[in-house]
Amino acid sequence: MHKFSERKKVNFMVNKELLYKIQAIIPAGERSDFVNQALDDAIVKYGRIKASRAMDEFAKSHKISMSTEEFIKLKNYGRP
After folding, report:
1. What is the pTM of this model?
2. Could you tell me where the DSSP H helices lie in the chain?
3. Is the pLDDT reported for residue 44 higher than 60?
4. Cα–Cα distance for residue pair 55/67, rounded to 1 Å
């Protein structure tokens, strides 16, 4: 798991069910690392989704008939 160098304590709300799952599964000394990694992964995924939607909107506004999925498939053609 990725260790983050500088940390800052924050205060935000999470669903009780989510908190109970974290407390039941993740050991106490590993929860901050787990949450940091999960948030980092979610931010990367969110950025990719936004980029994909932006590409689709660009294609639509410029009357390009290729979807993001088609573009990625074409871009990766022949790659393992």
Report:
1. 0.68
2. 16-25, 31-61, 68-75
3. yes
4. 8
Distance CA 30, CA 2 (A): 11
> What does the buried/exposed string (b/e) look like for 1-28 if buried means 16 or more CB atoms within 10 Å of the residue's CB?
eeeeeeeeeeeeeeeeeeeeeeeeeeee
**Residue at token pair 């053609």:** 77
Q: Is it the case that residue 68 has pLDDT exceeding 80?
A: no
Q: Fill in the DSSP letter of residue 61.
A: H
Which residue bears the tokens 């088609």? 70
The arithmetic mean of pLDDT across residues 30-49, rounded, is 95
Q: What is the CA radius of gyration of the chain?
A: 19
